[in-house]
Amino acid sequence: MNKISILTKGLIKENPVLVLLLGLCPVLAVSTQTSNAIGMGAATTFVLLGANIVISLLRKIIPEKVRMPCNIILIAGFSTLVNMIIEAYAYPLYQSLGIFLPLIVINCIIFARVELFARKNTVLDSALDAIGMGAGFTAALFVLATIREIFGSGTWFGMELPILKDNNIGVIVTAPGGFIVFGLLIALINKISKGKAVRKELDCSVCPSAGFCNKLPADKGTDK
Q1: Cα(140)–Cα(178) distance, rounded to whole angstroms?
Q2: Cross-strand pairs, 160
Q3: Contact present, 114 and 71 (Cβ < 8 Å)
Q4: 0.85 exceeded by the pTM?
Q5: DSSP 8-state symbol, 223
Q6: What is the pLDDT of residues 168-219, one digit of tens each?
């Protein structure tokens, strides 16, 4: 893949939210306000970028047997860092995101990119992949939050909108409404891509428990 393709694939073709369907818990939970969506998107992108770069740098040094624990520790370190930065300099956002901010550490988007891309590619490519996937995640979260906030609360970035403020559809900001809007966005992406949006599943070889199930023999769980 060329550099442009690596950078842009996360926007639509392999959008982590609308195509790969990863990280849906924070997406549906914080997408009731656009300010929260941007904050969560920026924080996740920061962690993803840092983790991708460091793991790509250390990919030939980290022993295969401790690969997953090392990945978790590195991701947890960047998650803790961004958590502390937001708490110190954007406390209202820190309160709004609540538990979902520290839970970035277990976001499956980050684990997927680290395992499927960063540990197999150069630092530059890994950084571009992180930026592209982070942008795709943030864009999907922003669009979803914009729709839900405008039509569900009658506001946008907290600003009241004429007519809609007093004639909003309250169900949209609830969990069922979030799933409905999310489903419509997925349908729109499929329409735009003419059904060619690639849905990639995580390969069994990246799972640390692959050797204990019937999907993969115990000696094929590595890339030796």
Answers
A1: 13
A2: 155
A3: yes
A4: no
A5: -
A6: 888 898 888 889 999 999 888 888 776 666 544 445 554 544 554 554 444 4
CA separation for the pair 38, 112 (Å, rounded): 21
Are 218 and 207 within 8 A, CB to CB? no
131 near 111, Cβ under 8 Å?
no
Domain boundaries, the chain: 3-220
Angle (nearest 5°) at CA 23 between 175 and 171: 15
The string over 102-128, giving b where at least 16 C-beta atoms fall within 10 Å of a residue's C-beta and e elsewhere, is: eebbebebbbbbbbbbbbebeeebbbb
* Residue 99 backbone class (left: φ over 0; alpha: ψ -120 to 50; beta: rest): alpha
Q: Which residue matches tokens 């982590």?
A: 16
Ramachandran angles phi, psi of 196, nearest 5°: -100, 5
